[in-house]
Amino acid sequence: MRKQIVAIKAVVFMLLLLAFLFLANKPEQHATYDLNHDGIMESYHLTRGKLTVTQPGGIDWSSPPEWNVQSFALDDATGDGTPELIMVLWKRGSFDRHKPLWYEQEENNYSCHLFVHRLIGNKLIPRWCSSALDRPIKSFTVEKDPSGKTFLAVEEGFYSSYCAGRPIIIGKEYSNWTWKQWGFYRI
C-alpha cells in the first residue's frame, strides 16, 4: 500500500512539473510604436504565444496559429536606421516552404526561431527568418555598443531532450549577435 501511495505521488508530481514547464512560460507583453512612420501608433499585444498588431483603420495582423511567440522587440536590430519587429518564436520544422535544395526532407521538430519583420504601409513583411536555431533563445534585448552599432544581447539555453513533443531547455549562456548583410552572427 505504501509503495502505491509513493508511486501515485510521483506521478502527480511529474504531471504538475510538466504542466508548469509548458504553461508557466507564457509571458504577456504590450507595446505601442509607430513602426511604419505614418504618424499613428500601432498596438502590439503578446498573450499565450499569440502576437497581434493592430492600428485603427490600418493593420490587423495576428501571428499564425502554428507559431508560439515567446517575446518581441521593436527596434533597429539590423543597424540600417529602420526599426523592425523582432520575434522569438517556436514552431515545427526548420524551414518554411523555401527549403534548401540540399535537404531531402523537412525535419518536423519543435524548435526555436528568430524572425525579423518590417511594417511597410499596413503589411508586415518578413525581412529575415532563421531556420531552427542550434541553441534556443530564452531572452534577448537590442543594445548599442559604444560606437552606436546595434546588436542583440541574447540569453541562450541548450536543447536537452523532448517530452510530449516539446523540448526541455537547460542551461544558460550569454552571447551577442550582430547583423551582417544577411543574417545575425554571434560575436
UniProtKB/TrEMBL annotation:
<dbReference type="InterPro" id="IPR028994">
    <property type="entry name" value="Integrin_alpha_N"/>
</dbReference>
<protein>
    <recommendedName>
        <fullName>VCBS repeat-containing protein</fullName>
    </recommendedName>
</protein>
